[in-house]
Structures are given as structure tokens and as C-alpha cells.
Design goal:
- It contains 15 helices and 12 strands.
- The protein is α/β, with parallel strands linked by helices.
- Helix 5 packs parallel to helix 6.
- It is 44% helix and 16% strand.
- It has a 7-stranded mixed beta sheet, sandwiched between helices.
- Strand 6, helix 9 (202-205) and strand 7 form a beta-alpha-beta unit.
- It folds into 2 domains: 33-273, 3-Layer(aba) Sandwich (Aspartate Aminotransferase, domain 2), CATH 3.40.640; 280-379, Alpha-Beta Complex (Aspartate Aminotransferase, domain 1), CATH 3.90.1150.10.
- It binds pyridoxal-5'-phosphate.
- Pyridoxal-5'-phosphate is lined by residues 83-85, 110, 112-113, 161, 165, 190, 192-193, 213, 225.
Length: 380
């Protein structure tokens, strides 16, 4: 297997001496992928009309086909979007809700997606219904029962996270989709964190819609997300921005949402190549193992606990801090950034947790250093 950790850090632009453990937030794009993006930009700027009138559409479709191969999906069922939030907006704002309709979300839904649901509720009179999530160490059976129990004849849509943002939980998404479908409820999966963190087969998963980011764990440049829509769920789904493709079919609508720089999308094949070069499935397994061992080591050092316990997890881990309360989260995070480490500090039930991310360039020493910096800050 390719040497990872410090051995590949020079492939990224990350500042020397910074112990980053926050890949999950915005990703970090490697140099070869940025170079591929630059090449696309150069092609675009050398002859803009030739690029936008001729080159772009087949190039986008080729990139979607390649991404589809990776995701277990057909390229024709994939539209590129700027990010997962934009994809979720497309699905949510394309639907017609009536007063009294219900939209299910998990209690750990990502804030921006929660706001989008709130918005469609505010303009339609629909109601957002929250399914509770136990944290730490939720029980899958309990979660599935809570989800099924929250469905009523008024439930029109469920928005389910594949990997939660604020708690890094890898949820049993296949079973959750099946539980909703069993009661006739369509599902939009928010998979912002999943591509590149866990293996995906979108066709087998059989959600109605799945949004994901390539700019987090797949190494694509910022602004590279996708919306996958099952073939029978594409009609009536529009991007958040309506443009020339309106009414001409799913890919036509998503492929053109006005003049914009599509180089992040077109660099997707380079990102997939880079991910594969670093090991592909082996890289993902290594990151999962590193996140789990780093999380367990910190929890043991502090006499606390991890968020996942023995649950299956991705390449992020939650660890409870030995002290501190919710009101201190922002100040502590700021102090840690100053001290040379980047890691989100997230309150849950009045206690502070950190969310660590393990990516190719990380190694155990990063998390030890981060732990020591946290201890120093907490001792102040
Ligand atoms: C679960 C989840 N959904 C959506 C998003 C939004 O991603 P983006 O800002 O790329 O739209 C995130 C970002 O961290 C996330 O964790």
C-alpha cells in the first residue's frame, strides 16, 4: 500500500506545522487535482465561446459517467451541483407541499438543510417533524423504530443523513430507506460526507434522491457536489437555479444553470484518480481504522468516551472532552486554531465533544499533538 501520513502531506497545500484534524469540514484538495482544474480553466479562458458552446456539455457528461462508475450509478442520473446544500435545495424546493404535510428530518440534520426544510415549510404550511437520535452510541433498532414511528399519513418526505455532521454517526441508511419506503415515504439522503469515506452503491441503496459532496472526502476542488435522482424520480426535480435547460430533462437542467466556472466538476476524474492512487478502498479502510484508534486513544487518555463506541463508523470520530461546557465551545475552538490545530468542538447534552477527521495526510502523531494542545487549553 502507498505510504500515507507525513509521506503524502506534500501533495497538499496544507500549512507546515499545522496539526489539522478537520478534513470533514471543507476537505483539502491535492496538487494534482488543482492542476487538472487549472487545465480546465485554461481551456475555458483560451476560447470562452468554444468552451461554453461546445466543450462543456460532453465534458460534464463524461465526468458524470466517471463519477457514476465510482458511485454505482449511471451518469445520466447524476447532476453536478456546487455542494450538497445546493443539491438538497433543488430536491426540496421542487416539491409541492400542502398545509399540514409533514417532512421528517433527524434531530442531527445538518443546519443548512434544516433551514431549507424550514423554508419550504414556511412557504407551504407543511410541518418539519424531528426524529430523535440518541447520542452517544445510538442503537440502530431504536433509531429505526423512532423513524417508523414518526411516519404518519401526512408524511410526504424523509430527509435522512448518511453520516451526520455534528455527531459523525454512520447511520444504517439502507435500512432507514427501506423503513420509509415500506410506508410509502420517499427519501432524500444527505450524503454530504459519504463519498470517499465509505463505499457507496447508489443503485443498490435505492433512495429516491441522494446528494453528496466530492470536495470533502473524494479530494475534488471546492464546489463539487452532485445530486443523484432515481430514474423515476427525476421528473419535476429542478436545480435551485432555473436556466435554459428548464423542461428539457434532468441532465439538461443541471448541466446549465447559467455561466459559472465548472472546473471543479470537470476535475472529478482527476480527484477519483488521486483517491485510487492513494489506495481507494484501502485508503478508506485505513482512515476508518485511524479515526477509530485515535478516538479511542484520546478517550482512554481523558477517561471519557467516543460517540460511536463499537458501532461501525467512517473516518471521523467523536470524543468527549474531560471538561468544559457548551458556552465555551467557540472560544476553545478559536484558541485551538491559534495554538496550531484545527478541530471542531461541538456541544452535546451540555458537554463538549471534538470531531476528529482522519485523512490520508494524517497520522497518529497529529491526534496526539491535538490532544496535548486541548489539554493545555483546558488547563488555562
Ligand atoms: C450532513 C451534511 N450535509 C450537508 C453539508 C453541507 O455541505 P456543503 O457546505 O458542501 O453544502 C454538510 C457539511 O459539512 C454536512 O455535514
Amino acid at each position: 500500500m502507498t505510504a500515507l501520513g507525513e509521506a503524502v502531506r506534500q501533495e497538499f497545500l496544507l500549512e507546515d506545522g499545522f496539526a489539522t484534524a478537520n478534513h470533514g469540514a471543507y476537505g483539502a484538495t491535492p496538487r494534482p487535482v488543482l492542476a487538472a482544474q487549472d487545465e480546465w480553466r485554461t481551456r475555458m479562458e483560451r476560447q470562452p465561446s468554444r468552451f461554453f458552446n461546445g466543450t462543456i456539455l460532453p465534458a460534464l457528461r463524461a465526468a458524470a459517467d466517471r463519477l457514476g462508475e465510482y458511485l454505482g450509478a449511471r451518469g445520466q442520473d447524476i447532476g453536478f451541483v456546487g455542494n450538497a446544500t445546493e443539491g438538497a435545495n433543488g430536491v426540496l424546493r421542487s416539491q409541492h407541499f400542502e398545509p399540514g404535510d409533514e417532512i421528517l428530518v433527524l434531530a442531527h440534520v445538518y443546519g443548512a438543510v434544516r433551514n431549507t426544510v424550514r423554508h419550504v415549510c414556511s412557504i407551504s404550511g407543511a410541518r418539519m417533524v424531528e426524529v430523535p437520535v440518541t447520542f452517544p452510541r445510538p442503537d440502530d433498532g431504536e433509531l429505526l423504530a423512532a423513524l417508523s414511528g414518526a411516519i404518519t399519513p401526512r408524511t410526504k418526505l424523509a430527509v435522512l443523513d448518511h453520516i451526520t455532521s455534528s455527531s459523525a454517526l454512520l447511520l444504517p441508511i439502507g435500512e432507514m430507506i427501506a423503513a420509509c419506503h415500506a410506508q410509502g415515504v420517499p427519501v432524500l439522503v444527505d450524503g454530504a460526507h459519504a463519498p470517499g469515506q465509505v463505499a457507496l452503491d447508489l443503485t443498490a441503496l435505492d433512495a429516491d434522491w441522494y446528494v453528496g459532496n466530492c470536495h470533502k472526502w473524494l479530494f475534488a476542488p471546492k464546489g463539487c457536489g452532485f445530486l443523484w435522482a432515481r430514474a423515476d424520480r427525476q421528473a419535476g426535480i429542478h436545480p435551485a437555479v432555473i436556466s435554459h435547460g428548464y423542461g428539457q430533462g434532468f441532465t439538461a437542467e443541471f448541466d446549465w444553470t447559467g455561466t459559472r466556472d465548472p472546473s471543479a466538476w470537470l476535475a472529478t476524474p482527476a480527484a477519483l484518480d488521486f483517491h485510487a492512487r492513494l489506495g481507494g478502498p484501502a485508503l478508506m479502510a485505513r482512515n476508518v481504522a485511524l479515526a477509530a484508534s485515535a478516538g479511542a486513544a484520546l478517550a482512554a487518555r481523558w477517561g471519557t468516551e467516543t460517540g460511536a463506541g463499537n458501532r461501525a463508523a467512517g473516518s471521523m470520530a467523536m470524543v468527549r472532552l474531560p471538561k468544559g461546557e457548551a458556552s465555551q465551545a467557540a472560544a476553545l475552538r478559536g484558541a485551538l486554531l491559534e495554538a496550531g490545530t484545527d478541530v471542531p468542538i461541538i456541544p452535546h447534552n451540555g458537554q463538549l465533544w471534538l470531531r476528529l477527521s482522519a485523512q490520508a495526510y494524517n497520522e497518529p502523531a497529529d491526534f496526539e499533538r491535538m490532544g496535548a494542545l486541548i489539554e493545555q487549553e483546558l488547563a488555562k
